[in-house]
Amino acid sequence: MRAGTSTATVTAANTAPTQGRRRRWRRTAAVIGSTIALLLGVAVGGAVLYYRSIDSNIRRTDAFGTGVQQSHAPAATATATRPPVEVVGAENILLLGSDSRGPDDPGSRGDAGLGRTDTIILVHVDAAHKKAYLISLPRDLYVHIPPNPANPSLGNRDAKINAAFAWGGVPLAVQTVEAYTAVHVDHVVLVDFAGFQQVTDALGGVDLYIEQAVTGVGKGGRHFNQGMQHLNGSEALEYVRQREQFLGGDFTRMCHQREFLSALLDKASSTDTLKNPLKLNAFLKSVAKAITVDKEFSLADTAFAFRNIGSSDLTMLVSPNRGSATIKKESVVLPDPGRASALYSAVANDKLADWLAQNPPATPPNSKNGCTGP
Question: Contact at 8 Å (CB) between 71 and 111?
């Protein structure tokens, strides 16, 4: 694993679920299970055709095949050697969150130079498909970015990990994560958080716990009061973009983004969305519009892989790092090469449960939702 020339960071964060969260995740599992039943229920007339119609409307990108290319540049042949598949049956999905300004923004498609990704999560599903691990890689994690074959002036240097997306779109982001972790990425899902504004509004808004009063950065920024708040799509999107006002900075924002996605599923399970074909159709179509996936990604196969995974089977981590530092007048997050190497070796070999037993997550900050703190 190459972690760049600098020494490195990281803190692992995991929150023991409260009873309320257990109940919420049970409802989430019910949502997922019901959706799977809809997508995979061959006995239900038209279910397969319906799945195919949804799947066909999802945008797709060349995440692996023809290599990295700069926007408006000709395709280049991939030269990077990808990590091998170590364990058959285990699955690694790279989740990238774009900060585009809507589903029609070219940056939401993963084109180089037309967007940026502030959310990078490596999702590992074990070979038994009974456990899932979500490992957040901070956007400022200082790593080596491989060269962009279409434009050698982009990449081939140490930089913040989200520079890979800006310099070479999804393909260079995949190459960077694979080079740093030595983990084979099976699929890529690019989530457009701006697109989730429509998803949120389709569900009538979401309920999020605001751990401290905060005002959005910039002219006309909204003020969010402390406590449980009901937010519509634009309000939720603005809130999960904030980071400068929180002690934990980008680590807190990553936590808020995970809570936002969880709240969407929680809201869906608490309404009649699943019981109303028209509402469910609108919900799934809005989700499809908000994501871009690799060419081989199957919505049905992914749903099937998660069918037995419930709340107690999910573990959230942060890529091992040594905290913030300044390099060339830039604030970065330094990796922790030794601990990161051990973690990602466990991912590649499907031994994360063993790794966690030897490396229990740090105690979360003392807050209602566990998001506040460095």
Answer: yes
Strand duo 59-61 + 291-294: pairing? parallel
Are the CB atoms for 163 and 190 separated by under 8 Å? Answer: no
Are the C-beta atoms of residues 149 and 79 closer than 8 Å to each other? yes
**C-alpha atoms less than 13 angstroms from C-alpha of 309 in its C-beta half-sphere:** 22
Could you give the 3-state DSSP secondary structure of residue 136? strand
Q: What is the mean pLDDT of residues 173-184?
A: 96
The runs of H, that is alpha helices, within 57-119 are none
Q: What is the Cα–Cα distance from 53 to 298, expressed in whole angstroms?
A: 12
pLDDT tens column, 20-54? 544 544 444 444 444 434 333 333 345 556 667 77
| Extents of the domains making up the chain | 19-358
Residue 102 φ then ψ, to 5°: 150, 165
pLDDT of 160 reads 95
Q: How far apart are CA 54 and CA 285, in angstroms?
A: 7
Q: Do residues 112 and 169 touch, judged by C-beta distance below 8 A?
A: yes
Q: Looking at 159-168, 260-269, 278-287, 289-298, which range is the least confident one?
A: 260-269
Q: Which residue has the tokens 């982001």?
A: 173
Q: Mean pLDDT throughout 159-176?
A: 93
**104 Cα distance to chain centroid:** 20
List, in sequence order, every residue forming a beta bridge with 97; answer none if it has no partner. 119, 191
Concatenated DSSP letters of 274-341? TT-HHHHHHHHHHHHHTEEEETT--HHHHHHHTTT--GGGEEEEE--EEEEEEETTEEEEEE-HHHHH
Instruction: Identify the bridge partners of residue 158 per DSSP, sorted by sequence position.
Output: 144
Q: d(Cα 42, Cα 37) in Å, to the nearest integer? A: 9
* 37, 248, 264, 267, 331 from 256: Cα distances, Å: 29, 11, 12, 16, 21
Q: In the structure encoding, which two tokens stand for residue 342, read together?
A: 């051990």
Based on DSSP, count helices (H) and strands (E) in the chain, helices before strands.
10, 15
- Statement: residue 137 has pLDDT above 80: yes
Quote the pTM value.
0.74
Superfamily of domain 19-358: LCP protein (3.40.630.190)
Q: In angstroms, how far is CA 288 from the centroid of its own chain? A: 15
Termini Cα distance of the chain: 26
